[in-house]
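Practice record 12: protein with zinc ion.
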Amino acid sequence: MFLCGSYVNTSTSESVVPESNHREGVVDFVRWLLAQLELEVEETGGVGRLQLDPSDRDAFGGQTELRIALQDAPADGQLEPLDFENVLSKWLLARLRTQGPAAHVRPCDQPTAVKDISSRLFTAYRVEGGRVHLGGCQLVDFPFLRLSFAAMDHGRPCVRHLFVAHDGTSVSDGQAHDLGLLDVEPILKSPPRIDETVLSALIASGRRIATKNSTSRDPSASTVDPISIALVWVKHASGQLHFTVGDTTVALPFSGWARLIEAQPFVAKRSGASSFHLAATDDGDIDAFEEIATCEQSGRRVLQQDLVTCSVTGKRLLEKFTKACPVSGKPTQTDQFSNCSICQQRVSDSVLENETCAACRQMAKIKKDDPRLVWILGEHTGLDRWKRWQLAETQNVYIAQAESLMKRLLVVADKETLAVRHLATSGRLASGWTPTEEAARAELLQ
Ligand SMILES: [Zn+2]
């Protein structure tokens, strides 16, 4: 939101001052002018004393010393408050113009060296058993233009600043604030160089923006000239952070305005997790610390995603130390398997009850045309003599039971090949099973 524009009370009364939310009191602006011109002022009680060089004294009626009000309401009643019409302000502005088309300044609190960036970023990360370091950082100065206009707001003289970005676009209030354009300090030694044509183009853009910001009231009015033009050199940083543990290094690029740059979380390649806390697996993969855990069988530090939970013990361990239980399908430590007393399969202890696996406990009645039974009977035609089929299946086998007049039959067949893995019979009222000898198998199956 722009505040209302106001007309400057000068000879160019038909000219209009661009509107801007960036205002500065005259005193603060004069303080900047004095600093920019390297004029040393001794200040006491809001009054500055400036010793004039002999060559400058004529401009001030031969005075050797100037007394300057450096507070809006000077403690010394003899001093007039500052505005841009008095001799001192005009002299300071004229002197600034002799230094070149634009003064060079920078945001007061922007990082100026690579170490300022690195120290800010490094503290955000923790690397277990390793370190974070810079894999390169480049600081580049970008010129933002500041056009300063004398204005009157609420009856008091002030300065309105208008900012232009390095690419000639206008700068939003938020960006001006974020980049620190409102609080600048002089660059007195070796300012960055700018090509004359680039500077002219920036100034032309600034004037266009100033006109645009001025014409809301009177399209025919012209814009007043700025009283000063400054280049605010804003640093942009880009580079890479390196995280090293042992022989492994991973990189995290960064890029942004130096004043705004903030540590970003490292995004691990394998787990995809984002973190400021890094560590390495025993295989040398750097990942988020939270994603690394210890295999309870081998003691190796690996990624969580490489571990499975044993269905019996609940331990977290590498998959290679487990097998899938054919009944539950769950990974299980290889020493946590036992034989089911019925189907004779090796199953995880978690599915066994009274030495009977969950599949054998949950046999379901099926009809003769159940496709699974059709396959089994098609392969082993002798089984067709049996009635009242029940069936269960595990990952690897079909477990089928049937009855005849006097006996019960148990057949365990491989799901893929339909080969019989186990065959047993029992009396109709008996509880146990008698495995069928190899020699007697053919009699039952064919
Ligand atoms: Zn079983």
